[in-house]
Amino acid sequence: MEIYKLTVEELLTLFRDGKLKVEEVINVFKERINKIDENVKAFISVLEPDTPEIDAKLSGIPYALKDNILAKGTRTTCASKILENYFSVYDATVTKKLKDSGAILIGKTNLDEFAMGSSTENSAFFTTRNPWDLSRIAGGSSGGSAAAVACREVPFSLGSDTGGSVRLPAAFCGVIGFKPSYGLVSRYGLVAFGSSLDQIGPITHSVRDTALITQLIYGKDPNDSTTVDIELDFLRDIEEGMPGMKFALPKQFLEDTLDDEIANALKKLIKILESNGGKVEEVDIPSLKYVVAVYYIIAPAEASSNLARYDGIKYGLRSKKEDLNSTYISTRGEGFGEEVIRRIMLGTFTLSAAYYDAYFDKAQKVRTIIKNSLNEIFEKYDAIISPTSPVVAPKIGEIKDPLTYYLMDLYTIPANLAGLPAVSIPIDFQNGLPIGIQIMGKRFEDPKVLRIARSVEKALDILDETGHLPVPEF
Amino acid sequence: MIEDKYGITIGLEIHAQLLTSTKIFCSCDANVFDREPNSSICPVCTGQPGALPVLNEEVVRKAVMAALALNCKINRYSRFDRKNYFYPDLPKGYQITQYFYPIAENGYLNIKIGEGNKKIRIRRLHIEEDAGKMLHSSDNITQATHSLVDLNRCGIPLIEIVTEPDIESPIEARLFMEKLRDILRYIDVCTGDMEKGALRCDANISIYNKETLERSSRVEVKNINSFRFVEKALDFEADRIKKMMEKGERVEQETRGWDFSSRSTVSMRSKEEESDYRYFPEPDLPPLIVSEDYINELKEKLPELPDEKIQRFQSEYNLLEYDATVLSSSKKLADFFEDCVRLYNNPKRLSNIIINDLLSLLNEHNVEIDGTKIRPEAIVKIAKLIDSSKISASNAKSILEETFKTGKDPQDIVKEKRLEQIDDEEFLNKIIEKVIQQNSKAVEDYRKGKKGVVGFLVGMVMRETRGKANPKVVSQMIESKLNES
Ligand SMILES: [Zn+2]
Fold first, then answer.
1. What is the ipTM of this complex?
2. Domains of chain B by range and CATH?
3. Pick from A226, A309, A360: which is nearest to B91 by CB?
4. Domain A3-246+391-458, CATH
C-alpha cells in the first residue's frame, strides 16, 4: 500500500482503525515533497508543523494552502515581491476551520502573483511545473495547489478561484478542483483579488474528498458579510447518481473550433452522462459571448482598489524615496510584476470618472444579463457542461500574449460572474496530458454538482486498479 | 456700499462622529480620544491583507436617528461604495462611504434668525468611515523631516450631512452648525464637540452681484474647527471674494483652508489638482436594507427635539420663550427641569432657580448637570423653602453651592448656616428701630414723599440680618413704622 496515493477518506479510515499513525503519514508526505518538489516547484514555503492529536473530523490529514490564504505566523507572499516577507497576523476563516478539524498545514503553494494569471508564470519567485510534463505549465493561478495534489505531495489543498483559478490548474494537472457558490465559503483571510468573484475551493483527487472538505470549510462567517446562512449536506446524496437529470451544453462554447482532444473529451463526457440516465441538449445562451470582456473589466477594477493597500507604508516592501509620492511609485513599481501592473492600470482606467459609465457600469449590467440567462437555463436543466479549458497545458513560456491566456478562461468565468458552483474533473488523457471537463450548477446546488461529478468519476476509464485517479511517475 | 451690492451663497458639508461603542466595520473600541497611538486597531481597520469589513448595526441606528431628527427621507435601500485615493492615513487605499445611494436624503433644519425661522434644506446624509491621523515632525508639513501615522481613528463611524446652498450669511452658517450640534446631542448621536473633531465642517461659498447677477466661482473652505471660526472663516472668505469681484479679478474655483494663526484662508489646491476618486460599489458589503418597521421603531424612540420642547415648555408650563429656550438647550437640563416639576408643581419658581442660580454655578465649574451631586430633590427643597418664605430667593445660590460641593440636603444647610428667614416681628422690630435711628435722613426723605427709600431701609435690615430677614415682612413693618410716627 502506497500511503501517498490514498484519499483523505481512506487515510481517515486507517487512522480510525489504528492502522496508521499521524506522524507516519506526515513523514510520508514530507518525504514526497523533499523528493519531488525541486522538480515540480509547487511550494513557496514548507512548514514544520506540530501534530497535535485532537479528536476531530480531519485529524492528522496534511494539506497545503495557496499562498494567498493567511495562516497566522506563516509567510503569506501572494507570490509577490511586495509581500515577500509578510507574516500573517491572523488565521483565515478556512485555515481556522481546518485547524479546528485537526488538519495539519504543511506548506504554502505557488501561484500567479496575487492570483492574476492562468499559468503561475506570473509568480515573482518561480514557475510551477506540470507534474505530467515538467516542460509544461501547471495552470493557474492555483498552480502550486493543483500540482501538489497531482503528484501527491499532499492529499488535498485549497486554492482560490476568481475566473477559473482552481478549476483550470486542476484540469491541467489531472485532479479535481471545485469552486463553490459565491458566499458559501468565507473569504476572510483570502487576500482579495476580485472581491465579487473570489471564492476559496478545495483541490483533491477524489470527488468524495471534495465534498468532505467543502462540508468543513463552508458556512456563514460573521467576519465575511457576503457569506450566506444556509445548511447543506455535501455527502448525503453523493452516491445517488443522476437518473433523469438534464444537462445543457451551450452552443457558444462550441463555436470556436475545439482542439480534437478536447472535443473528444467532451464526447466522452456526454456518453457517460447519457449512459447513466442523463440527457444532454445543446442550448443557446447569446450573452456568453461577452463573459471574457465583462470579466476583464470587473476583475481588474476590483483588483486596482484591492491592491491599493500595498503602498509601502504599513507592511511589505518599501522602496524609500525622498517624498511620499515617489515612495508610492517606486514601491509599487518594484513590488508588483508586469501582469499585476497591467491589471491595476486597466482597472484604474475603467473606474475613472470619464470612463465609468462606458466600462465598469456597462460591464455590471451585462453581468446581470449573463447571470439571469444562466439562471433561466437552470429552470430547465440540472447542470451546464463544458470543457474546463479549450486547450491542454501549454509549454512554459509558449504563450507570450496575455490575451491568449485571457481567452482561455472562457468556460470557467461564467461561474464566477454568476456566483455558481462549478467543478472540474479529469475525463481523459491525451498524449500523457490530462483533460478536464466542467460541471456547473445552480447557485447553492453545490451538493448536486458534486453528486454529478461523483457519478462521472465512477464511470471513468482512466482510474488505476485501486480505483484512484492516475498519479504521475517520479 | 459693497455689502449691499453682493449676495452670499453657502452650502455646508458636515462630518459628525457617531457615538458608538465600537468602530464601523470591526469591533475595536471607538472611543479613541487621547488614546495612545495605534492602540485601538485590528487587521480590519489597519487594512491587513484578506481582512473584510462587517457593518456595525449601531452605526445604522444612529445614522437613521440623525436623519429622522433632520427630517430626512430614509432610503430603504442604500449601498456602500469605495472612494479610492492614496494617503498614509488611509490604510486600505480607499474609504468606504455611500456615494451612489446614501441612507437618507431631502431633509431640512429650521434656524432662528431674529424673530423668524429660516428653513435650510439638507440634500443628503450618508454613512462613512473616518481615516487615521498624521503626526508630522514639525508644525509645518513642508519643514517636517518625517511623519508618523496613528490609525486609531481609522474606522470611526461618521455621518456626512450635505446642505443645499440655502445659507445666505456666515452668521446663518454658524447658527445652523449650533442648531445641528444641539440636535445631534439631543438624540445622543454625536458629542458635537468641534474642538475635538467630533463635528467638522467644510463650506462651499460663492458670491453674486445682486444687480448684474454675475456669480463668482465656488470656493471650498476646509479645516474649520470651532463654531466661532465657521463665521470668521466665511466672513473672511466672503470679503476676499467680494474685493476681488470689485476689482474685476477672476476668482479661482479652489479649495482653501482656514488658517488659525493668520486668521485667514489659504489656498490648498486648485480644481485641476482634484483627484478622481474612482467610486465603485463596495463588493465586500451587501446593500443596506432597512425595513419600514425598523424606521418606525426608531421614530418612536426619537426624543422630543429642541424646537418642540421650547414650544411645549411655553404652553405647558407658562414659561417665557427665553426661559424655555435656555432650559431646552440640552436634553439633560430639560429632563432635569421636568423631573423637578414632577416633584413640585411650580415651574416658574423652579425655572428661575435653575436658570439664575444652577446654570451660573455649572458654568463657573464648567460641568454639566449630570456631573454634579445636585439632584432634582435639592432644587425642589430650595423652591419650597422660598415659597414658604423660609429663605429668601437671594440665598438660593449659596445653598445650591453648598449642595454642589458637599451633596448635603438644602434643609440641613439652612439649619446649619442659620439661613432661615427671620419673620419674628419682635426681633425684627429691634433691628428696624436701630436702622431708622441710624438713617434719619432717609426718614426725612420719606416724609417729603420719596417713598423709594423704603427699599433702601429694607436693604439695610437685610444687611444687619445677613440676608435672613423676610424682606416682605420687613418692608411692611418699616412702612407702617414710618407712617405711624
Ligand atoms: Zn479594528
1. 0.96
2. 2-293 (no CATH), 304-416 (no CATH), 425-484 (1.10.10.410)
3. A309
4. 3.90.1300.10
